[in-house]
Amino acid sequence: MSAVLPKSAKVVVIGGGVAGCSVAYHLAKYGWKDTVLLERDQLTSGTTWHAAGLVGQLGASSTITRLRKYSLNLYKELEKKTGLSTGLKQNGAITVASTPERLQELLRQATAAQLFDVNVESVNKQRIKELYPVINDDDILGGVYMPEDGQADPIGVTNVLAKAAKMEGAQIFEKTPVEKILVKDKKIVGVQTKFGKIDCEYVVIATGMWSRQIGEDIGVSIPLYPNEHFYIITEPLDKLPKNLPVLRDYNSCLYLKEDAGKMLVGIFEPNAKPAFKDKGVVPQDFSFGEFPDDFDHFEPYLEKSFQRLPMLETAGIRKFFSGPESFTPDTQYLLGETPEVNNLFTCCGFNSIGIASSGGAGRVTAEWMINGYMNEDLFSLDIKRFQKFHSSKKFIMERVTETLGDLYGMHWPYKQHNTSRNQRLLPYHEELKKEGACFGVSGEYERPMWYAKNNEKAEYKYSFDYQNWYPSVEFETKNTITNVGLYELSPFSKYEIKGEEAHSELQRICTANIKDEIGRSTYTQMLNEAGGIETDLTVICIDKNHFRIISSAATRTHDKAHILKHLSPNLEFKDITDDLVCLGIFGPKSRNLISKISNDDFSNETFKFGYGKLVTLVQKKFGPKDYLMWVN
Length: 632
Ligand SMILES: Cc1cc2nc3c(=O)[nH]c(=O)nc-3n(C[C@H](O)[C@H](O)[C@H](O)COP(=O)(O)OP(=O)(O)OC[C@H]3O[C@@H](n4cnc5c(N)ncnc54)[C@H](O)[C@@H]3O)c2cc1C
Description:
Blueprint: E1 8-14, H1 18-29, E2 35-38, E3 54-55, H2 62-82, E4 93-97, H3 100-115, E5 121-123, H4 125-131, E6 142-146, E7 150-151, H5 154-167, E8 171-173, E9 178-184, E10 187-193, E11 196-205, H6 211-217, E12 225-234, E13 246-249, E14 254-259, E15 262-267, E16 273-274, H7 295-308, E17 317-327, E18 334-337, E19 344-348, H8 354-371, H9 393-406, H10 429-434, E20 437-442, E21 445-451, H11 470-482, E22 485-488, E23 493-498, H12 502-509, E24 521-527, E25 533-543, E26 546-551, H13 556-566, E27 572-575, E28 583-586, H14 590-596, E29 612-619, E30 623-630
Parallel strand pairs: 1-2, 1-11, 2-8, 4-13, 11-19
Antiparallel strand pairs: 3-7, 4-6, 5-6, 9-10, 10-11, 12-15, 12-16, 12-17, 13-14, 14-15, 18-19, 20-21, 22-28, 23-26, 23-27, 24-25, 25-26, 29-30
Helix pairs in contact: 1-5, 1-8, 2-5, 2-8
Flavin-adenine dinucleotide (FAD) binds at residues 14-20, 38-41, 45-48, 50-54, 154, 177-178, 206-210, 229, 231, 323, 325, 348, 350, 352-356.
């Protein structure tokens, strides 16, 4: 480092990969000029330098597609602004399908992409052959073509973003590792580097595969871990047409990129290999690094590439490459403010689409920081969708073996992961299993999603069409509407708030008029400053100055962080989610059922809608016990 570090800054962005440079550029562009980016070694020295450089727009979700489309346009725009090249070539991209389900998935994604003005065509076999004459199309059913997709040089993209950031007023320091993020009273106060301290208001962790460790150091959970990610580059091929589009063959787990007469063949295999497995730690000095060959691992996919592109069979391999890339528990990025520390943001976990995504991810990160809330629907990317256990080494190292393959896997509705399951079981898990429960994960818990009927196997048969569990749900629904149904709701998030100002504080942060009468419940929302919905919840007055909040299972971390950020610190707040079991008894005969196991009065007149009370249920096994019951 030659220039002198500033003593203070508004924001310190840690990490000079493609993501960090994009955040710094957008912050400075939107007016937060006092932004400093600190890079441990050289720009791109982590993962960015060795990316294959595919800049595709079509993502598995519309949120990702939107950010990727923005990235492509930004890289083109910044080339003009900076006078530097990103090496962008827009030869287009084709994704082919060799099963009917895959074709259905591609067409669904293409329809969603068209909503965001991505130029995408559905293509038949004949058109695919015209666009990609050297393909073996024997088993191909069709595909989609994005004429404006491209490939870029990842180092070029990063340099363009870095130069644009500097032109907007941000400062960038290389060879400046951050040794510690400084936190006081759960808020960012600065960073400690080898060359001194920088006081700052905000920190962005854009440190790629190091992020989990950096977070752990200050008690922040960042659930990602690197896998080894493989590609080969062939020797030059005489008969390879120039300017071929990028080819993706999800069914064969392959992508193929023509590069100056050679072919790059990369894979997204379902049995990924976690990197640095022995210690489970990314070394601090890993720069421009790569791993030794693992031909046995790559070979089955090389075979598949020969089937798709027969001319590869006789090609020599010039380079076998394996480098680390971070994967997250659900193959979606990690953006937004951390729940543990205020003003600490993450922009990492790119699951091998970081070059294609960073333009957009940097923009939304900057907007989120400046506004204090997300500008668009980014819930699926918010780091607060996870809980603490997701970043434990055991959980994440097992899960990423599956999530690398998920990138090219089928994105089925209701899909459940196979790895890192059974983190938390309900007390009556085995009983539910005997009743035919098919389990899925919600929050931390294994939850019964539906019950198999007629001794059928309790497992999802994934489909975009009629679901195999519809008959079970139809039975449950009809029975509940006409009779009574018992629903397991324990993973719902539950918080208790106590204190003299409990009611007035809830009135301040909720949209509805919160009932301050013992036994009454209020359904309400909490909004951000722009009027966007942050949480959807029920508030129950348990006692004087004592309220209970119930919100959905999947939003536990997010809702808790929102409430704690806005609630007066004078109040007592407790997360009691794991302390209480919660069952719903629904249907016209629910009062009859409950009356059979309790001597309390459950008549409509004395136990009205929206009211609750403590009741005593008599169980044969344990005798009488008190339960809080609500009619909602
Ligand atoms: C083989 C391979 C092929 C790929 N192909 C593609 C592709 O075709 N298209 C695509 O979109 N993506 C691709 N990717 C993924 C892409 O490369 C990554 O998603 C992206 O580079 C991640 O960027 P990043 O900025 O998050 O991380 P990085 O590039 O790793 O940047 C993080 C930076 O943080 C720095 N850092 C760490 N700790 C500290 C500290 N304490 N203080 C200061 N600095 C620190 C590191 O030195 C590093 O430079 C590929 C990845 C691999 C491995």
